[in-house]
Amino acid sequence: MSFLSATLSRVKPSPTIAMTAKAAEMKAAGRDVIGLSAGEPDFDTPENIKAAAVRAIADGKTKYTAPDGIAELKQAICAKFLRDNGLSYEPAQVSVGTGGKQTLYNALMATLNPGDEVIIPAPYWVSYPDMVLLAGGTPVSVETRLENAFKLTPEQLEAAITPRTKWFVFNSPSNPTGAGYSRDELRALTDVLMRHDHVRVMSDDMYEHLAYDGFRFCTPAQVEPALYDRTLTCNGVSKAYAMTGWRIGYAAGPADLIAAMRKVQSQSTSNPCSISQWAAVEALNGPQEFLEANNAVFRRRRDLVVSMLSEIDGITCPVPEGAFYVYPSIAGLIGRTSPAGTRIDSDEAFATALLEEAGVAVVFGAAFGLSPNFRVSYATSDAALTEACTRIQRFCAALT
């Protein structure tokens, strides 16, 4: 009899974390490595948010809180949803977790039974399928196409829905592609969902504020109000507010679902860090002007990376609408050989050779459920991006 759980054997470690760790090990050993694998802004947390955390410590706000968040943060979240998305929630409809990942995981743990299916468009954030598996459900991956800008079509969604479908996971702008759905594109998907009232929607809006070139973010319950009672709208402060390490995510939805998520959280981690919660109150209630300035920087970096990667023979790099990732195709490089003798027979082989031979860390597309591609995070300095893309250009040019 194995000591470890059989459930654990169904999942794998996060490839993004693994690639980032490998790059860090190589750096520690003295190698010159540029990391483009982590989805983390290089901006510092804004000063007003840090000051709010310091005040919370000084005021002794360091004790246990309610399991799924303080009342002040839940009120700030309700105000945010109304202000930004036109969605009206009460505090009893809000759950605060230790990062966005926990809120998603809590919802899946609270709702999935063996045989329940969860539709996940691919490429997807690496954790979605494994969280479904841990919760006892069955992930149903639906591959999108580069020709459709990596966006799910209504026909694909319709074909994927079965009587066992419990959730449809929606992420826009997307990790890993940066693809954002317009209101009309999302409306076409919600029209499908309206025909299948047993399907719930889990909308991961973590990159809501990272949108470029006039792209206007929208979320499913906003586009189709009739889906309000079937939708869990998830978000957090990690990306837009440069608060990845503070670990605050949140979600709003039907009160009975939120209560079930609270039960899961009360028996796992209990409350998120009290100090981080007070910082998040300031993030949501405080000045928002810096978001536009940060977006201008991200847009410039996106254009730099897309331009340099598009110069490479064998790589196709679409222009994303949001987030801080690009997801180029390396279909034209498959079958070639690297200067060190590595045959590029997959995107994993490409990413491994690129790291070992050129000192650039990216994440291979198979980790996100769609190959042959790789993900670049451009949430780092212009100088680092320029040097990294130059190395990728040289590496690809040397393939034979």
From TrEMBL:
Coiled-coil stretches: none
GO molecular function terms noted in the UniProt entry: L-aspartate:2-oxoglutarate aminotransferase activity; pyridoxal phosphate binding
Cofactor(s) needed for function: pyridoxal 5'-phosphate
Domain Aminotransferase class I/classII large, chain residue ranges per copy: 32-392
Xref: Pfam families: Aminotran_1_2
Superkingdom of this protein's organism: Bacteria
GO BP terms in the entry: amino acid metabolic process
Chemical reaction(s) catalysed: L-aspartate + 2-oxoglutarate = oxaloacetate + L-glutamate
Catalytic class of the enzyme: transferase
Xref: Gene3D superfamilies: Aspartate Aminotransferase, domain 1, Type I PLP-dependent aspartate aminotransferase-like (Major domain)
PROSITE patterns, per the entry: AA_TRANSFER_CLASS_1
Entry keyword set: Aminotransferase, Pyridoxal phosphate, Transferase
InterPro entries: Aminotransferase_I/II_large, AspAT/PAT-like, NHTrfase_class1_PyrdxlP-BS, PyrdxlP-dep_Trfase, PyrdxlP-dep_Trfase_major, PyrdxlP-dep_Trfase_small
Keyword Lipoprotein in record: no
Annotated EC: 2.6.1.-
Subunit annotation: Homodimer.
Record-stated family: Belongs to the class-I pyridoxal-phosphate-dependent aminotransferase family.
Stated name of the protein: Aminotransferase
